[in-house]
Amino acid sequence: MSEPHILETRIHANGTQSAQASSTPTADQRGCEMRVLPNRAIPVVFIPGIMGSNLKLTAKRRSELDKSNNISWRPEAAMDSLAMVFKSPAQRQMMLDPEATEVDRYDLNESEANKRHKNVSGVSYIHVHGSKNGVVNKDERDRQARLKGWSEVMFSSYGDLLQTLESRLNQMCEDGKPRGSWNSGKRQAVDVPPQNWGAADGEALSAEELGTVCDAWYPVHAIGYNWLRSNGEAAKDVAQRIREIIAFYKNLKFDCSKVIVVTHSMGGLVGRAVIHPDYGNAQDVVAGIVHGAMPAVGAAAAYRRIRVGFEGSGIKGYLVKKVLGDTGPKVTAVLANSPGGLQLLPSERYGSGWLKASVNGKEVLSLPQADPYTEIYTVQDKWYRLINPEWVNPAKLTTSKIGIVFNKILDAQTFHQNIGATYHSATYLSYGADLKQKAWGEVTWQTSSAPFLGGGASQILGITRLNIEEPASEWQTLKDDGCGVIVLRDGQPQNPRQRFSAEMADPAEPGDGTVPAERSAQEPVRQGKARIAYQQTGYEHQDSFKDDAVMTSTLHAVCKIALQSFTWKTCP
User: Fold this and answer.
1) Is the peptide bond before 471 cis (omega within 30 degrees of 0)?
2) Which end of the chain is more exposed for a tag (fewer CB within 10 A), N or C?
3) Sign of the dihedral defined by the CA atoms of residues 339, 344, 348, 353, in that order
4) Is residue 571 over pLDDT 60?
5) What is the pLDDT of residues 376-433, one digit of tens each?
6) Closest residue by Cα to residue 51 from 157, 142, 145, 165
7) Residue 149 neighbours by CB under 8 Å, 6+ apart
């Protein structure tokens, strides 16, 4: 027998539900199925990572830049993204200023809203909260997805996740039994032990459990946030929107009290702040959190990128790093002024000795000893400093002086300390621990001869021998090209003319290319805060939610949270 055609269920303002079927050719003998939604609604809310939310410029900044549109950051807008390749540090600072940007939400009052948010199109399955003229079609489904926030996030990275959650969670069972997608295929989630997805322990999701939690509607929402601002500030905005979502479903006459949160990358820090009383204070309306690729205590890649720019290989990687910023001056002009970006730096919980220098394989510097904020991030007169003051404010903005940057770093320290031990009691997480996706658990500056025309000619030609004196903390910067090479001198009187260079070593620790597994991703496990942690391989950081194991373990986690966090009817 052919699979039935699933009709979109429309939910009307008075709480009633309806569906509309159309006549088909005689040869089409499929039945039609309308799902009458259960009385309970458990919204699933997705929070993206840094650079994963679309931003728009304030009217004032748009005028100052004389832009034809108000797009600040929309990576799926091809021409705007390509234009970033050619932006100077000053232009990037103006375009990505936390004081002149806001989340680009879908606004029905904007005449160009659908065109602007066309990154979400072709949505195949979604429940509709009413419709124009009583008709549900492709445009209406796309519109509904945009109203749920799907178009305010980077849909090319997160679209598979959002659509899979929406379709799978709302098509769990048929005649009391799991539907085929739950029982078979690459994303089978029923009767599969979590160890198959990298967990050390945990129980499989049974058919009976799926039959229990299917007695709810799981509308899937995405909430973008201004990732240039503090994650604590973002958490307040996200918490407010979560409460608005709950109120919306209550107004539709559904029993709706809590949401389940799914996060990616820096969104995990936002999610933890959402349930912290000093920030979102929404612990009462969050049933559990599923974290993906979270830099739980920061990532050394943040230091690396501020100093020398983003990395990337191959054609795609080359274009990505050009858009994001392939030099220290380009990245510093944005992230040094971004409280959110600075909160990705390794915190005190990251541990000591992650910033190193070596001479002929011998370690000659290891920092921090205890406090990275005072030993590295706010240091001004050391060659290994995080911030080059000359790169901070190329646009000459009054809100971007070096003293303001250092205050933001100290604010980041406070944020790190506040959420350091904050995890939901129902926390699940997936993370990469892949030797083929190495990450900077530590950053090591390796010394060698200076460039030929930068003082190293006699060393390279063998006329003189390179003899670098310690202590490394007293080396002096002569030139920093912002692309990864620093020309130094050791400052010792016996070698007054000697020059040498330092470059960063390649990443060496298992991870996902950005977050190191041991130093950061595993922190919730060390603290005993994760119900299940799925340690995985085979994916890169930004595209983690395109991976089958990540997707299926997320479905497993959402169902387990629902099962354990709500009271369900029991069958006689």
Assistant:
1) yes
2) C
3) negative
4) no
5) 999 999 999 999 999 999 999 999 999 999 999 999 999 999 999 999 999 999 999 9
6) 157
7) 105, 106, 221, 222, 223, 224
Name the nearest CA neighbour of 10 among 30, 35, 32.
35
C-alpha distances in angstroms, 47 versus 234, 245, 525?
10, 14, 21
Which residues, in sequence order, are CB contacts of 547 under 8 Å at separation 6+? 536, 538, 539
pLDDT tens, position by position, 107-128: 988 888 898 899 999 998 888 7
pLDDT in the model for residue 145: 96
Q: Which two tokens stand for residue 452?
A: 């030929």
CB environment 401-420: b (16+ within 10 A), e (fewer): ebeebbebbeebbebbebbb
- Reported residue count of the chain is 572
Q: Print burial letters for 354-381: b (CB count within 10 Å at least 16), e (below 16).
A: bbbbbbeeeebbbbbeeebbebbbbbee
Query: Hey, which bits of 69-148 come out as E strands?
Result: 71-73, 101-103
The distance of Cα 234 from the centroid of its chain, to the nearest Å, equals 13
Q: Is 108 helix (H, G, I), strand (E, B) or coil?
A: coil
Q: How far is residue 366's CA from residue 357's CA, in Å, rounded to a whole number? A: 7
Give the contacts of 517 (CB within 8 A, at least 6 positions apart). 431, 432, 433, 439, 509, 510, 511, 535
Encoded tokens for 56: 């728009």
